[in-house]
Amino acid sequence: MLDDFDFEGIALVNEYGYASQELLNTMMVGRACSNVHDGDKNMGDDLVLKGIPHRSEIGFLTYFEHFGHFEVGDRYKLPVLPIWIICSESHYSILFSTNFALASQSVSPTGRPFDLIYYDELARQADHIILTVEPGKYVAGGRRGADGRMHKELTIPIDAVIRTKWAQANIDWNGRTVIL
């Protein structure tokens, strides 16, 4: 397992008691690699960044990709099952669907809306939060209010995470309070 780390001194649980990426990758693909890109990347000068060795049973998406910090590879974005662990700003949550075609395709099979069920333990949910995703329907920059004026849009972390897999998707929270 120590050979899986990019650098010496990596801990599976970080200083704040959170699971490291290496721990999550160990649980998901059986390898404690430090990264989420597909395969290993040789950076030269004997530096190899270790990534995901094979397609995962369940996927992984992260808010940090939205900011361009790194890119999650297809081995996590296109899992065997339509289940994705979500790394938001400070904790993990989950998205899943009963539509198995979503796991293996980067967009919905028909281009039509589809539902994802979102679960966040910290939200103390009493029932399901069902998000309707419409690929290709999102227009960035704001929304038109009832007054007809454009209003600046607040970045909703879960929406941004979903768009790392389904670009330009409009996400409808179906009347539920948006979780920031």
Please tell me the overall pLDDT: 84
How many structural domains can be distinguished in the coordinates?
A: 2
User: If helices are DSSP runs of H or I spanning 4 or more residues, what is the number of helices?
Assistant: 4
Shape: globular
Distance between the termini: 36 Å
* Category from helices, strands and their pairing: alpha+beta
Share of helical residues? 10-25%
Proportion of β residues? 15-25%
Largest sheet: 6 strands, mixed
Encode the helix/strand succession as letters: HEEEHHEEEEEEHE
Strand order of the largest sheet: 3-4-5-6-7-10
* Rg: 18 Å
Contiguous uncertain segments of 5+ residues = none
The overall strand count is: 10
Explain what you see.
This protein has 180 residues and is α+β, with helices and mostly antiparallel strands. It has 2 domains: 1-54, no CATH class; 55-180, no CATH class. Helices cover 14% and strands 22% of the residues. It contains 4 helices and 10 strands. It has a 6-stranded mixed β-sheet with strand order 3-4-5-6-7-10. A two-stranded antiparallel sheet has the order 1-2. A hairpin with a 2-residue loop joins strand 1 and strand 2. The longest helix has 9 residues, at 21-29. It is globular, with a radius of gyration of 18 Å. The termini are far apart.
